[in-house]
Amino acid sequence: MTDSLQPTADPIPLSVWSNPWHNLAFGLGSGTLPKAPGTWGSLVALAFVPLWQILPDWGYGLVIMLSMLFGIWLCGKVARDLGVHDHEGIVWDEFAGIWITFWLVPAGWYWLLLGFVVFRLLDILKPWPISWVDRHVHGGLGIMLDDILAGFAACGLMHLAVLWLG
């Protein structure tokens, strides 16, 4: 899924407001915004990062693991419900990707800003192997996996930035 400044191609289903699974998959409604739903979803997910960062490292890791496993099921279910491969308003994958980005990264607004930009660039540009996964893996796993990979790549880059910029 690419993120662009064009309005969403798929119509927003009304079920986003009445079905709790659809609402979660659409990032608590952030995926319904008409321009750049992935960026809006990432921004909403970013608001949770300071909460996850006060957890012990293993607790934050558990949040990541559960968000990935739940997301594979959730995104697959909602895509099937809507009869589409990957509706661009489904942004739970961005939630998981952003949360992965900040695992074991120090707290601070500048790290949040840098990590947000790094994750969004990787998610939008989809360097290899993220681009391959995006094209060849389908279903809930396919919706989630490119953002999971972008999140881990962004996390690695953030750890390098922490070492370099300290």
Give the termini separation.
33 Å
What's the pLDDT, averaged over the residues? 94
Helix/strand order: HHHHHHHHH
Q: Shape, please?
A: globular
Helix content range of the residues, please?
55-70%
Largest sheet: none
Question: What is the rounded Rg?
Answer: 15 Å
Overall SS class: mainly alpha
Which band does the percent of strand residues land in? under 5%
Task: Give the number of helices.
Answer: 9
Number of domains: 1
- Unreliable residue stretches: 1-8
What's the total count of β strands?
0
Q: If you had to describe this structure to a student in words, what would you say it looks like?
A:
It contains nine helices and no strands. The chain is mainly alpha-helical. It has one domain (18-165). The chain is globular.
Task: Tell me the layout of helices and strands.
Elements (H helix, E strand, L loop, with lengths): L14 H4 L1 H6 L11 H10 L2 H5 L3 H26 L9 H10 L7 H17 L4 H7 L2 H27 L1
Helix pairs in contact: 3-6, 5-6, 5-9, 6-7, 6-9, 7-9, 8-9
